[in-house]
Amino acid sequence: MKTILITGGAGFIGSHVVRLFVNKYPEYNIVNLDALTYAGNLENLKDIDTKPNYTFVKGDINDGIFVNNLFDKYQFDGVIHLAAESHVDRSISDPMSFIMTNIVGTVNLLNSARNAWKENFEGRRFYHISTDEVYGSLGKTGFFYETTSYDPHSPYSASKASSDHLVRAYHDTYKLPIVITNCSNNYGPNQFPEKLIPLAIHNITNNKPIPIYGKGENIRDWLYVEDHAIAIDLVYHKGKDGETYNIGGHNEWTNISLILQLCKTMDIKLGRAPGESEKLITFVTDRAGHDLRYAIDSTKIQNELGWAPSLQFEEGIEKTVDWYLKHADWLENVSSGAYEKYYEKQYANR
Ligand code: NAD
Ligand code: DAU
User: Which regions of the chain does DSSP assign to beta strands (E)?
Assistant: First the structure.
């Protein structure tokens, strides 16, 4: 029986990874370590939380002693590290929490893995989940490859770039068995409504303005979250030691065209007249240091591990909208309280 630590499992992507591993591998013990920040929500896992191979531990990866004790207690065979501060706008207003969790928290986990595993690395793996934002911003053409130089622009992407470098440094210096993936923008159920798609769904539903930064010309490459979870499973089990794999949707949209498509879907789902929802589009002040375009070349993971996205965007966005409309209570719960305050502050002067 293997024991795997998944960090950040109560968050958006982490909850899909935990669910996949708990259901697919009854022979693994899955320990989900999460601090339950504003972005962590145990509601995301209520369908699997009584399974015998699942344990939830509330704790902070910034606390090195706690993390060491956890490794002593559970003797992990592997780590899939997703815990992070993940929202670019928050990193602009509060960089320090990104430095702490994304850099110091990652190093705490690396140190604990190294202490626990000594030099006995057989069957062990430290898998660090990262982002395409470390590569910076593309012009109108070209792609991010695994060999593209790092050029992060936001405190978020700079903190993720730092953690990637540190993970590689522990591999090169101490031979810690690692693997890293850099993925493009995810969308789907359980994403916190500070991110573009769930924010827009929430606002359209409630007839509130949809804030579009700048002219809406920035481009993102969108991937359905369950396809990312499938890729993570493949890389954890079959990825080569020390390697990096890019993961992307081959699905580029300008923000404005994505929102127009989403508005069309919402009009149909909410029984509104065509064109009704797009009247809510409001252009607001641009994000500082806003990267123009992200686009991933995922040939390596396709050729080496046989992964490709399974869902077309039209299908994925419809599934996503259906999920949020069916889970209006989830959206309302996470949109109230502290989040409301953040939202008011974030958009106050835009
Ligand atoms: P999220 O913000 O939805 O979830 C992050 C989770 O980490 C939350 O459950 C939170 O409680 C937990 N967490 C935060 N700080 C912690 C701490 N100090 N100790 C323990 N737990 C803590 O994030 P997400 O969108 O699911 O992203 C997960 C990972 O994937 C991140 O590392 C992110 O950089 C990466 N990533 C995200 C995307 C995307 O589009 N969302 C794309 C590529 C890579
Ligand atoms: O590329 C991967 C990254 O994708 C992840 O590493 C990050 O964790 C994740 O948050 C995401 O970052 P983005 O900044 O691309 O996602 P976000 O949903 O915040 O914004 C998507 C685009 O939409 C971006 O160009 C900014 C724009 N935007 C965003 C918000 C929240 C708006 O125009 N209006 C908004 O209100």
Answer: 2-7, 28-34, 54-58, 78-81, 125-131, 178-183, 185-187, 210-213, 219-224, 244-247, 252-254, 281-284
pLDDT tens figures, 17-71: 999 999 999 999 999 999 999 999 999 999 999 999 999 999 999 999 999 999 9
Q: Are 253 and 180 in contact (CB under 8 A)?
A: no
Taking Cα atoms as reference points, which of 2, 172, 177 lies closest to residue 74? 2
Annotated catalytic residues are 132-133, 156
Verify whether ligand 1 is closer than 6 Å to residue 84 (CB atom). yes
Residue nearest to atom 8 of ligand 2 (CA): 86
Q: Which CATH superfamily is domain 196-219+252-291+312-339 in?
A: UDP-galactose 4-epimerase, domain 1 (3.90.25.10)
Between 3.40.50.720, 3.90.550.10, 2.40.128.630, 3.40.50.2000, what CATH number should domain 3-187+222-247 receive?
Answer: 3.40.50.720
- Ligand 2 pocket: which residues have CB below 6 Å? 86-88, 131-133, 184-185, 195-196, 199, 211-213, 218, 220, 255, 287, 294
Ligand at shortest distance from the CA of 342: 2
User: Global pTM?
Assistant: 0.97
